Amino acid sequence: MTLPTHQAFSDNLGSGFQVQVSHELHETLVLRSISDLGVSPASTPTHPKEQFSLIFEAENANYYPQQIYGFDHPVIGQFDLFIVPIGPDNVSKNMCYQAIFN
Fold first, then answer.
1. What are the start-end ranges of the E strands in the chain?
2. Which end of the chain, C or N, has fewer beta carbons within 10 A?
């Protein structure tokens, strides 16, 4: 499975992703920010390796543990992603999660 690129996420900043948090439950996480972490030392001209961080915000304060979840987006498609809870947003108090690509 190929993960989406920095550009694919950038093109969909602010949109919702359906995340399967259990067999019966899906949660919507909204992509709130993307941080560029520079070029990986393992990157080569023929095989560039992007490093970036994503912050997703849930639509509520529900907490889900760090692990791999199935994501689904109408434009990007389906992929699995390891996310880590980083605490609630200061304003909305909704739970936020981070994924790092390195």
1. 16-20, 26-39, 50-58, 67-73, 77-88, 95-101
2. N
